[in-house]
């Protein structure tokens, strides 16, 4: 419930319009191609996007192109008309699309121009042209004389000039076959350039090839002239076979380049890991053994409390005599009051160590 309440709070006017359009499509039960055309010609402030136009053109494999063209013209006329036919159209003009109907008119003209420039030569182009030529008066009279009554941004004259300019372009494509052919060729070249730039941006992600020619350049060289205009005498079936063969070659090249980019990325990661392993410091290298070479001794002599110079020098004669005197001096016996007098007056026993020490003194 909390998630649902947050979603409801974050709903905007665009979400509400999309929900209303979805409900309307479900109630009226529009055909799939009609739904795509309605999405490409809605009242949003953007579009029709390339994705919307591609979806519209994709329906040519399910329905004839003249039906798609007629429905686009019908939608155009419904929004150009100033007098609504029924209560539903009046409510739509006055409340739902108020201030945004001119966007539907401009987008319908953009869809018609897109169909003229992007359908295949032959039957498809003839279907679109014949339908537009049949209803040419709608473009030359109704659309060219269209006046924007109200706009949400207040720029009614600017929008009127944009609509007339787009309508003039569509009419010129219908009236001048040479101009239509040149525009179709120029549009095909622009599409090829955009596609090649998109592919090159993918190929340029590979920074490895230092031999002088990048994979992107190779791909562009291989694609050079791939989609050039064939002579008019070439059958449509042969054109389609050549187009499918070129697309298969491009797909194979893309797979090869993706594999090369993947291998290069793996090699780069391996080199980074090796460089990182070489840069790790050794703990033994952190110890400076040169500082330890200057240490000649430790503090053990200081712990003994002696002077190192004094300990290492030879003892003198006076030091030896002092040591002998201290060793030869007998300890004084403690006087006992209980001992008999005879013991006190008795002579001392002969001490051999005392004679030895006395003899040593005489020698010194």
Automatic annotation (TrEMBL):
Example of a GO cellular component annotation carried by this entry: clathrin vesicle coat
Species of origin: Torulaspora globosa
Domain ENTH: 25-184
Region (Disordered): 189-250, 298-317
Amino acid composition bias (Polar residues), ranges on this chain: 193-214
A GO term for molecular function: clathrin binding
Pfam families: ENTH
Biological processes per GO annotation: actin filament organization; endocytosis
Biased amino acid composition, Acidic residues: 219-231
Protein name: ENTH domain-containing protein
């Amino acid at each position: 419930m909390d998630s649902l309440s947050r979603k409801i709070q974050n709903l905007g006017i665009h979400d509400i319009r999309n929900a209303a359009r979805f409900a309307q499509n479900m109630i009226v039960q529009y055909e799939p191609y009609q739904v795509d055309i309605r999405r490409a010609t809605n009242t949003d402030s953007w579009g029709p996007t390339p994705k919307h136009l591609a979806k519209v053109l994709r329906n040519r494999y399910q329905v004839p192109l003249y039906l798609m063209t007629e429905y686009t013209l019908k939608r155009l006329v419904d929004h150009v008309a100033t007098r609504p036919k029924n209560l539903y159209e009046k409510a739509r003009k006055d409340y739902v699309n108020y201030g945004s109907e001119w966007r539907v008119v401009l987008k319908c003209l953009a869809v018609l121009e897109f169909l003229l420039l992007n359908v295949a030569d032959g039957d498809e182009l003839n279907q679109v042209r014949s339908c537009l030529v049949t209803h040419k008066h709608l473009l030359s009279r109704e659309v060219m004389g269209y006046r924007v009554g109200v706009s949400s941004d207040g720029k009614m004259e600017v929008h009127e000039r944009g609509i007339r300019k787009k309508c003039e372009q569509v009419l010129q494509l219908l009236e001048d076959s040479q101009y239509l052919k040149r525009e179709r060729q120029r549009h095909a070249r622009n599409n090829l350039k955009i596609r090649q730039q998109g592919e090159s941006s993918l190929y340029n992600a590979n920074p490895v090839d230092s031999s002088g020619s990048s994979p992107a350049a190779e791909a562009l060289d291989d694609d050079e002239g791939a989609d050039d205009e064939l002579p008019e005498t070439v059958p449509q079936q042969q054109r389609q076979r050549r187009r499918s063969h070129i697309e298969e070659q491009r797909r194979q090249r893309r797979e090869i380049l993706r594999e090369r980019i993947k291998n290069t990325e793996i090699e780069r990661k391996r080199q980074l890991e090796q460089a990182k392993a070489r840069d790790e410091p050794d703990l033994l290298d952190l110890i400076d053994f040169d500082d330890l070479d200057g240490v000649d001794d430790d503090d053990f002599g200081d712990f003994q409390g002696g002077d190192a110079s004094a300990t290492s020098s030879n003892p003198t004669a006076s030091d030896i005599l002092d040591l002998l005197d201290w060793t030869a001096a007998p300890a004084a016996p403690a006087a006992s009051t209980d001992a008999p007098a005879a013991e006190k007056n008795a002579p001392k026993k002969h001490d051999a160590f005392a004679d030895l020490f006395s003899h040593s003194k005489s020698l010194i």
